[in-house]
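Same chain as my last thread, 471 residues:
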Amino acid sequence: MTLAVSFGPDALAAPGFILEPDYTLLPEGPVRACAVAVEAGRIADLGPGAAVAARRPDLPRIALPDRLVMPGLIDAHHHLTQSFGKALAFGEPSEIFRRIWVPLEGSLDDEIVHASAKLAALESLRGGFTTVVDAGTRAAGDVGTIAHATEAAGLRCVLGFICNDLGGGKAGDPDAILAAADAHLARFPAGGLTHPSLAVSIPEVASDRMLGAVAARCREAGAVFQTHANEHLVAVERSLVARGERPIEHLDRVGALGPATLLAHATLVTPSELARLAGSGAAVAYNPVATAWKGNAAAPALDMIARGIPVGLGTDGTRSDGFRLLDAAETVQRLAFGLATGDSSCGGGWTWLEAGTAGGARAVGLAGVTGTLAPGLAADLLVVDLAVPELRPSWDLPWELVRLGNRDQIEAVLVAGRLRLWRGWPIDWDARALMEAVAARAETAVAAAPIQRVHPVSSMHRAGRRGSSLP
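reply #2:
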């Protein structure tokens, strides 16, 4: 007979256990009385509670009344080394990477890169993300510093290595860049928390040879090739002026658009480009909060999904709150497209839950690793408290999670079967000490960076408006 144990961090620290929640989020939706057996970092069994317990009498059973067990969320596009400067970009016009992010990252040494990435990893885990895709840093030094930080925090990371050879940070000799890219792809052992990826910041900062070579290497290695594409009007126009093609058209012509390609944003896309995306198998990281905060347009994510384009949800480093990201994904589609067409559903709640979990895993090349609760996959999962006023009474749990879910409901975050956060805080390292260290270093790092802001901070902005007729 299996042993019943109380829910808590000690129970989740066992080498194996059976979770018995009221609801389990499976690909077909929330299912009652479905148990999840976790062992050796993976989901060992899944099914009706009594059947799982009978098959695995060696594992302790953890009853989870009024709780949901669901896959951890996937952040399909992040910038882990930008966590020191988030609010510096608030209220700023588009293309802030040129005036804020490139200067900031260029001023970071390895110690600050580690602290920035670990702080971002903590934010992600608190928001329910068990996997993030880092687009690559422009900071000098070893990109492995980011891997050390995310692994120490317990976060799964698809880690980009920037391969720009025409500018935009880390430019250099193409052959040397490709040799370093090969070393990056071979550096991290299979089965670990770090999954190597290659990146070009934007297509304009890489030669045709580099774009094609990097994409080919990723296809051969089973890795993801990342680039920002068609994000801002100025970027589209730069590409048209320089190459006579829009960025996605250009990627297609040079052989860099394919099943290994993950495009960040793709907000300004033509019908022809959508057809190219659908035909190529390329995926898109849809970043709805970035659209709301500093974008020129909203990616037609529902159109993409309808065409079979893999779509994941990304924060773009804005705020790492998973449930709010799901809400933003639906809201942006509703405001940008649904209102004009009378679409009152805008994909329904399930569309955005899938994009944040299984769909996101497909988009970032990890469908065989995470994103779904299924035997053999990594035990990357969340335990969510449903006994909250916002969800009582409950009529449609997928919609409720999208619109009413809150990160405060996340009681436990497990990555690779290991408890990483308990009620918002890590159990095996000192997060508050990290925050103190960040506070001590961040001001100096930001002051040393040649950042150019268009607007002053909000208090100075407000003071400048006093006495005027403007609000």
